[in-house]
């Protein structure tokens, strides 16, 4: 397995990996790098069966999540609800068979942001099955963004003062077919609070925020006044999605990504061929570990 560092300084690229025969050293790196570096891109060239992808994800995570409260059609059969289709493909009755099957933008978000820290899946793994060419998924780095935010001089009144006491309350309902703005609501996410500034399983500190689900800011037990809610939301959305904190992953069939879901958001620009594009999605957990000993700065730059 060959590891290189993207010129942006944080995304790790993986080449020359036999995903059907991952050894223990490779498995440990794939298990930890998505937390220390937030995004791992595996330039896989092998087509995988659903059983092979299921086996791969089971190996790089300690456990897989299987309790997303969504309609049954999105789950790949005989995978214990651990693998989900992300596609706009429709069945014979005209129903979308995957998650977020609309050709429109999918806004910046992370998955299930309102779940408690003890039960929330840590990382996302996506595999490009077919017809993915031309599709893009964007990812953010909130570790670096938080460092810069603390030094910002143009923040709305009160934001920096409250930053480390800030909580977000999530109570999201939407459509797994047509996105958060659609009228056909068929999904109710878990409700709950999470810290805005938090750590992931490697001990890295960054920002956990998911604007698609319209979280409400709290300081302690008190919600921030309405004017502050809007001002903070608008400022943070613009700040955290600046190009210097973002990476665009250009899909090709068989590529795999693994992405931290605590300190990174993802989004998809509009894609007209969504009805033919198919990704498989898994969400997993790992046990806490000390990421301070992992130095990816020694990696050669990816070309």
Number of strands: 20
Radius of gyration: 19 Å
Structural class label: alpha+beta
The SSE order reads EEHEHEEEEEHHEEEEEEEEHEEEE
Biggest sheet features: 8 strands, mixed
Question: Which segments are poorly predicted (pLDDT under 50) over 5 or more consecutive residues?
Answer: none
Helical region count?
5
Mean pLDDT: 96
CATH class: Alpha Beta
Number of domains: 1
Percent helix: 10-25%
Determine the CATH superfamily. Answer: Clavaminate synthase-like
Keywords:
303 residues; globular; alpha+beta; eight-stranded mixed sheet; Double-stranded beta-helix; four-stranded antiparallel sheet
What does this structure look like?
It is a single chain. The protein contains five helices and 20 strands. With 303 residues, the chain is of the alpha+beta class. The strands form five sheets. Strands 1, 2, 3, 4, 5, 7, 18 and 20 form an eight-stranded mixed beta sheet that branches. It has a four-stranded antiparallel beta sheet with strand order 6-19-8-17, with no helix packed on it. A four-stranded antiparallel beta sheet has the order 12-9-15-16, with no helix packed on it. Strand 13 and strand 14 form a beta hairpin. The chain is globular, with a radius of gyration of 19 Å. The model has no long low-confidence stretch (mean pLDDT 96).
Short summary:
By secondary structure, this protein is of the alpha+beta class. It is built from 5 helices and 20 strands. The protein has one domain: 4-Layer Sandwich (Double-stranded beta-helix), CATH 3.60.130.
């Amino acid at each position: 397995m060959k590891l290189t560092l993207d010129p942006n300084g944080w995304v790790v690229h993986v080449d020359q990996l036999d995903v059907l025969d991952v050894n223990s050293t490779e498995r440990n790196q794939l298990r930890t790098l998505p937390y220390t570096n937030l995004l791992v891109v595996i330039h896989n060239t092998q087509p995988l069966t659903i059983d092979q992808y299921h086996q791969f994800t089971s190996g790089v995570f300690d456990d897989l999540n299987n309790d997303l409260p969504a309609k049954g059609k999105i789950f790949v059969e005989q995978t214990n609800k651990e693998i989900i289709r992300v596609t706009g493909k429709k069945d014979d009755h005209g129903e979308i068979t995957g998650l977020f099957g609309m050709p429109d933008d999918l806004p910046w978000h992370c998955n299930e942001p309102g779940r408690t820290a003890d039960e929330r899946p840590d990382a996302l793994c996506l595999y490009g099955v077919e017809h993915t060419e031309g599709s893009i998924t964007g990812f953010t780095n909130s570790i670096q963004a938080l460092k810069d935010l603390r030094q910002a001089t143009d923040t709305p009144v009160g934001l920096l003062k409250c930053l480390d006491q800030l909580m977000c309350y999530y109570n999201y309902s939407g459509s797994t077919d047509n996105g958060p703005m659609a009228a056909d609501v068929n999904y109710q996410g878990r409700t709950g609070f999470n810290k805005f500034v938090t750590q992931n399983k490697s001990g890295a500190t960054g920002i956990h925020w998911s604007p698609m689900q319209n979280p409400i800011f709290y300081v302690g037990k008190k919600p921030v006044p309405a004017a502050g809610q809007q001002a903070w939301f608008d400022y943070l959305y613009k700040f955290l999605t600046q190009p210097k904190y973002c990476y665009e992953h250009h899909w090709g069939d068989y590529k795999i990504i693994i992405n931290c879901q605590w300190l990174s958001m993802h989004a998809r620009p509009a894609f007209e061929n969504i009805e033919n594009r198919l990704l498989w999605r898994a969400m997993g957990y790992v046990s806490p570990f000390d990421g301070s000993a992992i130095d990816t700065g020694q990696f050669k730059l990816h070309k």
